[in-house]
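> forwarded from #structure-qc
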């Protein structure tokens, strides 16, 4: 230790290191947030969560939709904008114990009312709208969006 070294001499180096790492983390978080905001076109805070997965030749969108039947859901693709919406009433679904699908009894608590949602998502690259598929199973909606084949030959466009 140097003769004139004080107990706070290393503090300046530590603060520089901390500042450098905090700035790096902030830039990383900012770019991640910017990417997410370019993809999510929904105006309101999402009540229904989704995942967008790139599987090479296909984008897969997974959406948690517990309690929604296939007929409660709508999926539309317009260009690169994917809209997923759901609308259901709050009536109890038939349980295994109630094979007739009827709800008998007095409700002591009713929290499952009319519920609807709508999410819009910008797909990162053009997709083949004719080959898009959607299926719902065990409370998860899966939308498969095959990417357009970019290896198609270039074709000239005549200018009139």
């Amino acid at each position: 230790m140097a003769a004139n070294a004080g107990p706070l001499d290393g503090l300046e180096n530590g603060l520089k290191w901390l500042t450098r790492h905090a700035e790096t983390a902030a830039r990383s978080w900012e770019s991640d947030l910017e990417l997410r905001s370019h993809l999510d076109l929904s105006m309101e805070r999402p009540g229904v969560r989704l995942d967008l997965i790139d599987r090479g030749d296909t984008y897969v969108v997974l959406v948690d939709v517990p309690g929604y039947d296939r007929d409660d859901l709508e999926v539309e693709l317009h260009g690169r904008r994917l809209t997923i919406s759901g609308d259901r009433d709050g009536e109890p679904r038939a349980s295994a114990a109630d094979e007739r699908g009827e709800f008998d009894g007095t409700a002591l608590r009713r929290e499952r009312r009319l519920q609807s949602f709508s999410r819009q998502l910008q797909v990162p690259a053009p997709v083949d709208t004719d080959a898009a598929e959607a299926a719902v199973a065990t409370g998860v909606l899966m939308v498969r969006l095959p990417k357009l084949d970019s290896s198609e030959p270039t074709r000239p466009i005549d200018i009139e």
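QC bot note: The first helix runs from residue 9 to 39. Residues 41-91+114-146 form a domain with the Immunoglobulin-like fold (CATH 2.60.40.790).
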